[in-house]
## 1
Amino acid sequence: MFQPNQHDVRRFFCGAWRKQREAAPLTALETLAALWIAEHPEYDADLRDEPAALAADYSVDAGRTNPFLHLSMHLSISEQCSIDQPAGIRAAVEALAARLGSLHDAHHEAMECLGEMIWRSQRDGASPDGAAYVECVCRRASR
């Protein structure tokens, strides 16, 4: 299993964005990343300067949103939906997107659920609860 470190993730997103801007060939994953990056023009400066991105502190104490975490969550949710894992996530995100009228907004809502699942897993020292995650997204879709 590939387990990238923080710098690998940052290099990946910076590289994908550079290739997109230069109209260079992109892998399928880079293409997906570039599509999500395009939805977030506020991250352009962070992604254009790879050395600064590698050195940046996006800790909570720094008070800055971590664009790489945010974009990674978009990719995670996209991949989860593409393979419907955990089971039911595709339908839940699609229902949420239909209610909100935006896949992008649905991802942001789903991110809250994903983050909560990860936080609970870490707090409790337990495996992530995929069913609870899907249920959280379903609840948001039915509001």
## 2
Amino acid sequence: MPYARSRLPLCTLVVTLLVQAGYVPDGAPANPAKPYQYTVPEATNDGWETAHVSSENIDAEVLKTLFDRVLNETYKNIHSVLLIKNDKLVVEEYFQTWHGDAESRDLIRALDRVTMHQQHSVTKSVTSLLIGIAIDQQLIRGVEEKISAFFPEDADIFAESAKDTLRLKHFLSMSALVWDEWTYPYTDVRNDHISLNRSKDPIRYALERPVVGEPGTQFVYNSGLAITLGEIIYKVSGVRADKFAERYLFAPLGISNYYWWKYPNGTVQTGGGLSLQPRDMAKIGALMLHGGRWQGKQIVSEAWVKEATQPRVSTGRPPRWLAPEYGYQWWLGTFRVGERVVASYSARGRGGQFIFVFPDLHLVAVFTGWNDNALWLQPVEMLQQYILPAVK
């Protein structure tokens, strides 16, 4: 709708229009420190039943303390928190974020349920589901298949006997090839992921890395392996991974709004290029919680969900990660809450994107945010200190 002619100064008019679009001017806090008030999530006919937290035996007062700390920025740059308990969406909170320089906060934008969030490495866990679906469809015989069988055009790479021993299970568990993605930032060409992004053939770049020790025994975080998994989907199905996901995963889940970044040669970035809305992230968690089913329909086999969430290799990550083991593109760990030990598996992405599944509590927790530093693990603390203690 066009705006009527205004006599306001141009700068004032611009700010007014930005505020109406969900932005507020420089100087305002990202989340004004007013007391948190809980509201039941809105039912939107997207497959989610909603309910009050108290009806699912979650302590609303404990959650109030948590969200007051988000609003006063004790917890910083949190974009959204969703909780699904007993298949009901009971918490759905969105906050505000700034655009531009974080210190000047020149424009602040309110987030909501239709805001798309880049998943970063949460994408890897979705890619694991695609591999499971391909196995279910007998496009792939199983995790013992040799990687070399999928890439006959790169036979020269696999001429080395050690590399020809690599199997699909080694790529899924990130225990296959030498790779350095964590020593240098994602702006530094010495970071293998950045070098892969700049290469003409990202798959060949990944496959050319040396074998790490004895495959299957040493965890080496490697986005190149996850991107190669997406290419395997293309090899066996003749459909790019994004379209394969749309047909066999997203459509059955009722997910219609997504974006998947591709390399110039058409390779889908299945290691970190997916963007989703938070409610749809929660559907991925619920699918896993129910052994591959969504609303009674089997989308990926229960056998694959169990296989993907079994410990395959020790990660060697510090205790604050609460993820000492890795499955097939899923992180595994336990939380201690009082006398309880609560098992979990999770999808984790750079900056603070998380899907946590707690099978024993019948709970899924989703977080989005942007902290490209040590604060990206804030949701782990939020779970440990507030959310899990609130679940009675």
